[in-house]
């Protein structure tokens, strides 16, 4: 196998890894590579037909991500909530309508979809990214560290591992990681790993004509959350939301029929005039999920101390949304962890 030599290796080209790579490049550091097992960049950020099937929103108290968007010249905008929302408490009873306070802060979305942030970062470091490169072993060597992949051997002084801890446990580490770190990997929930998202596009936002916001909330139906997902420019109209996890046990055609029937009942016949329909079940994405898929509605324990230290004699550091000590499990946490990893390398 061919051996590649570099100063730094970043495993994973998701938001955290790209943030680290971008930050290094901005500081004039160019001797690094990014190894991505997927055939695309972005990780759990995935935008298709204007719909975000992965990470979507950030909040007013998130500070790292708006700063990064500003640096890249990417706009943000508020999640649209004008109109009546629908709460479904009982499938056989009447629905409850509500309206959001127009003066209350709402979540932000990224103009062009969350992938705009990914592409904005990547355009500065595209030559460093190796797709379809699956890492299997990380070995401490006399002069640094060696990473064994499907595309050859990569040797460097230090490695940043940005893939989710519960996925990173598939890697073989030599020497082995401390038992406490392995246990932390096993018990850290992977953000998005249990989620199923659905997206529909339409010629017009028919729900608005009925005074509806497009928001439908209810844990008992096939769609647990649904939102108006139009573009910032209001030139592409979509509905996007989360599906009841129990639906993954149903055949695709039966699942789709139930979803459309449910949405038609609550939003009207315009649902049937959809242009495109697509689902994304992250539990069957082997780059994201594992055999320990479980609902993440409880508060996951992110930013654990086990992921804040260097390992393999100060050559391996963990990064990513699950390792962030602030806003873990959010895009903001991923950006923060990426900045932290870059700072560790720049100030070593």
What key attributes describe this structure?
alpha/beta, FAD/NAD(P)-binding domain, Polyamine Oxidase, Chain A, domain 2, 2 domains
The strand count comes to 21
| Total of domains | 2
The profile of the biggest β sheet is:
7 strands, mixed
In terms of structural class, how would the helical and strand content be classed?
alpha/beta
Helicity range of the residues? 10-25%
- Radius of gyration, Cα only, in angstroms? 21 Å
Low-confidence parts lasting 5 or more residues at pLDDT below 50?
A: none
SSE sequence, one letter per element: EEHEEEHEEEEHEEEEEHEHEHEEEHEEH
The order of strands across the largest sheet is 8-7-17-18-19-16-20
* Overall pLDDT confidence: 94
- The CATH architecture of the largest domain comes to 3-Layer(bba) Sandwich
**What is the CATH domain class of the largest domain?**
Alpha Beta
Number of helices: 8
Précis, in short:
With 348 residues, the chain is α/β, with parallel strands linked by helices.
Any overview of this molecule?
By secondary structure, the protein is α/β, with parallel strands linked by helices. It has two domains: 3-49 and 117-189 and 297-346, 3-Layer(bba) Sandwich (FAD/NAD(P)-binding domain), CATH 3.50.50; 77-108 and 194-284, Polyamine Oxidase, Chain A, domain 2, CATH 3.90.660.10. Helix content is 22%, strand content 26%. The chain has eight helices and 21 strands. It has a seven-stranded mixed sheet. A five-stranded mixed sheet has the order 1-13-12-11-15, with no helix packed on it. Strands 10-3-2-14-21 form a five-stranded parallel sheet, with helices on one face. Helix 1 (15-26) runs parallel beside helix 3 (115-122) and helix 2 (64-72) packs across helix 8 (331-346). The longest helix is centred in the last third of the chain and has 16 residues, at 252-267.
